[in-house]
């Protein structure tokens, strides 16, 4: 299954999710709207619908000759959890939430560590000044 950010990284899929967030729509309605907005074929839109279906972002139900698509609530919940995890990481970034005086004793500020790497004085790095991996 694709990561929620991967699913939402494609503008066409984001727009399909926006459309389906308003309620259930036929594949024809979705294809017509997306094909017009993005100037793509109905086949291209169908492929994006298939990706959403494979990744459990939408449900489809047949109704006579139509296929009705609706957004799965759990997909939005997965996306919300990923955003919450990203927010948690953002709140814990070094040098922002924690002041230099509240860092653990053995932790070094990032810039000081970068200077040591550039100077080749990191433990085990002596004598390797011209390594190709170094910027």
Q: Classify the oligomer.
A: single chain
Question: What order do the strands of the largest sheet run in, or round the barrel if closed?
Answer: 1-3-2
Please give the share of residues in helix. 40-55%
Estimate the mean pLDDT confidence.
82
SSE string, helices as H and strands as E: HHEHHEEHH
Amino-to-carboxy terminus distance: 35 Å
Percent strand equals: 5-15%
Largest sheet: 3 strands, antiparallel
Please count the helical segments: 6
- What overall form do the CA principal axes indicate? elongated
> What structural class do helix, strand and pairing data support?
mainly alpha
SSE topology:
Layout (H helix, E strand, L loop, with lengths): L3 H5 L2 H11 L3 E2 H12 L3 H13 L3 E6 L2 E6 L1 H19 L18 H10 L16
Antiparallel strand pairs: 1-3, 2-3
Explain this structure.
Helices cover 52% and strands 10% of the residues. The chain contains six helices and three strands; from the N terminus they run ααβααββαα. It has helices at residues 4-8, 11-21, 27-38, 42-54, 73-91, 110-119, and strands at 25-26, 58-63, 66-71. Strands 1-3-2 form a three-stranded antiparallel sheet. A hairpin with a 2-residue loop joins strand 2 and strand 3 (66-71). The radius of gyration is 24 Å and the shape is elongated.
What tags apply to this protein structure?
single chain; 135 residues; mainly alpha; three-stranded antiparallel β-sheet; 6 helices; elongated; disordered C terminus
Offer a quick outline of the entry.
The chain has 135 residues and is mainly alpha-helical.
């Amino acid at each position: 299954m694709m990561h929620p950010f991967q699913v939402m990284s494609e503008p066409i899929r984001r727009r399909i999710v926006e459309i389906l967030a308003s309620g259930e729509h036929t594949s024809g309605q979705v294809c017509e709207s997306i094909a017009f907005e993005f100037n793509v074929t109905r086949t291209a839109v169908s492929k994006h619908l298939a990706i959403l279906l494979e990744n459990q972002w939408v449900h489809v139900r047949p109704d006579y000759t139509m296929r009705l698509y609706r957004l799965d609530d759990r997909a939005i919940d997965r996306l919300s959890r990923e955003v919450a995890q990203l927010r948690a990481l953002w709140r814990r970034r070094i040098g922002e939430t924690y002041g230099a005086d509240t860092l653990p004793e053995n932790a070094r500020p990032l810039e000081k560590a970068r200077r040591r790497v550039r100077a080749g004085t990191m433990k085990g790095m002596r004598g390797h000044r011209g390594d190709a991996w170094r910027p």
